[in-house]
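Sample entry (305 residues):
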Amino acid sequence: MAANESKKKLSLTTWILVSLVAGIVVGLLFSAIVPTDSPFDLYVIEGIFYVLGQWFIRLMQMLVIPLVFCSIVCGAAAMSDPKLLGKVGLGTIALYLLTTAIAVLIALGLAEVVEPGVGLDLSAVIMADTSSASADTLVNIIPTNIIAAMNSGAMLQIIFFALVLGFVLGRLGKKVETVNRFFTQFNTVMMTMINLVLKVAPVGIFCLIVRTFANLGIDGMLPMLKFILTVYGGLFLQLFVVYLILFVLFTRLNPLRFLRKILPVMLFAFSTSSSNATIPLNLETLERKCGVDEKVASFTIPLGA
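Predicted structure, serialized as tokens:
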């Protein structure tokens, strides 16, 4: 049983890695030999590959909100003790704030040393409005209409309502046993759906990467290479230095074994560029392969994303 499970883990990691590498190679090959607006470009790259890639992303996004909602409700219900909920909640938020602050310092330090934007022509870049009202963000954590929040994908509002609902269900205990059982069973259904979707993950990732690199090409990558390497350098320091130091300090476990188990999640996040879409695989990996308590994972992962 253990051998078969290990083989399955390796198979998922291998296929995702193969689909990434193959997607990059095929995408760059298409960018070199396929003319823009040619029938192949319009009907294969921008047709078949685009549709299949987007279908895969949408399948994952389709599962995010019901999974996050049920996971947090179940997790909060299991931690009905205010002391336990407060300990896990405050510890999680403190750790997220610490790692975010370190990430900001790494980014600022690398940007100061490397100066990745120097020499780039930004005249064609569409600038986004990055201004935000922090007070409104805090106010909007509490939803006025949870159905509207789910419809719009307002994750903070969904998480807040799920926490309150889960805490109340946990406090009521046997009085609402049927409701608790519903959320637990529905969460099981969602995890089963995730396993089905993950079977087509290598195909979806391959299509996404092929189209990306076919449109980008070598010529599109070179001007941004300094910036890209700076970003990946910062991510490398955060992941393999900061996170692993914290991992060893708090768990005293072998970080290499953990990285081997979590590798499919990292590759999936890299290829989809979506934290929310990665939540389902992240939860499944932590609970079933890393042995993380389900109520802890279901509370911390959606909140982190």
